[in-house]
C-alpha cells in the first residue's frame, strides 16, 4: 500500500510539472542540448610584419654591341669577364670600301671648291666691268646704255653661279662628313663602365647589318655590374603602404647568413594581370662586385598599416562557397557575420566587417553551426 502511494505521488508531480510550465521544460532541454564552443575576442592591433618574397638581381644597364657598318673585325680587346671603362676602345673594324668612298668624297669636294673659285673670279671680273661701265655712262655718249644693262645682267648671272657653286661645296662637305662618320663607326668604344658577359665573334669575322647570319648576333654584351636593380614582384595585397626610399633587407644564395640592404627606388604602379603582382625595383650598389646580375634573391618585404585593424584566429573564418564569415555568439546563440579578410600573420588574420573589438567569435568556425543555434561558450585563455 505504501509503495502504491509513492508511485502515484511521483506521477502526479511529473504531470503537474509538464502541464504547469512546458516552456521552461523545453528551455531546459535546449540548454541541455546546446553545443559547447570555444570563443575568442576580436583583437585590434597595428599590422607590422615581414614577408619573404622572391626577387632577381638584374644589371642597371646592359647593352648588346652591334656594328653600325659592314666590315671585317680587325681587333677585339676584350673577352668574357673583361672589365671595361666608358670610352675605352674595345673593337676595331676595317672596311676598304669606306677608304674608296672617302677618296671619292674628297675629290668631289675639291672639284666643287675649284668650281666655286672660278665662279667667284668671273663674278668679280664681270662686276668690275659693270661698275666701270656704269661710272663711264655718267658722261653722255661715252658708253651705250644697252651695254651697261648687259654688263649688269652678266654680273647678276655670275652671282647665281657663285651661289650654286657654294651649294655644291656644302653638299660635297656633307658627303665627306658622312663618310667620316661611317669611318668613325669602325672603332667601337665601351658605352659605360662594366663587365663583358658575352663574346660571340672573333677577329676576321665579317660583321654588319648586311653580313649574313653573324650580323644577327651582337659582338659582345656589356653590363653594369656595379649598379644593379633588384626586381621584386610584390603581391597586390602588400603594396599599400610602401614608400620610395624605404630600406629593405635581402639575401642571396652566394653569401648565406649575410644580409644586404637597398632602398625602394622605382614603383611601377601597375599590377600584372596574370600574376597579380606589381614590379618594384630596389637600387643595389655593388662596387666590390660581390653581387652578380641574374642572381636569385630572397627579400624581407615589410608590410605595415598606419591604423589598427581587427584580427581573429585563421580558424575563426570559414565560408560556405557563397560568403565568408565568422561565427559570433550573442545571447547564447550563434550568429554568422560576413567579413572581408586581409593579411595572415602568425596564425591570425585581418578581418573587416560588422565587428567590434572585444566581440566573441567561435575559434573553430564551421558551417555545421547554423545561425540561431544555441551554444554554450568557453573562453580561450590563448589567442
Describe the structure.
This protein has about 375 residues and is α+β, with helices and mostly antiparallel strands. The protein folds into three domains: about 35-60 and about 225-383, Elongation Factor Tu (Ef-tu), domain 3; about 65-90 and about 190-220, Beta Barrel (OB fold (Dihydrolipoamide Acetyltransferase, E2P)), CATH 2.40.50; about 95-185. The protein has four helices and 23 strands. The protein has helices at about 1-20, 20-35, 95-135, 145-185, and strands spanning about 35-40, 45, 50-60, 60-65, 70-75, 85, 90-95, 185-190, 195-200, 205, 220-225, 225-235, 245-250, 260-265, 275-285, 295-305, 310-315, 315-320, 325-330, 335-345, 350-355, 360, 375-380. The strands form five sheets. A six-stranded antiparallel β-sheet has the order 2-17-21-20-19-18, with no helix packed on it. Strand 19 (about 325-330) and strand 20 (about 335-345) form a beta hairpin. Mean pLDDT is about 85; it is low at about 1-20 and about 20-30.
- CATH class designation of the largest domain: Mainly Beta
Shape field: elongated
Rounded to an integer in angstroms, the radius of gyration calculated over CA atoms is 46 Å
CATH architecture of the largest domain: Beta Barrel
Unreliable stretches? 1-20, 22-30
Mean pLDDT: 87
Let me know the number of strands: 23
CATH domain topology of the largest domain? Elongation Factor Tu (Ef-tu), domain 3
**Superfamily (CATH H level) name of the largest domain:** Efflux pump adaptor protein, beta barrel domain
Strand order in the largest sheet: 2-17-21-20-19-18
- Give the number of domains: 3
Distance between the termini: 63 Å
| % residues in beta strands | 35-45%
**Biggest pleated-sheet summary:** 6 strands, antiparallel
- So how many helices? 4
Structural class comes to: alpha+beta
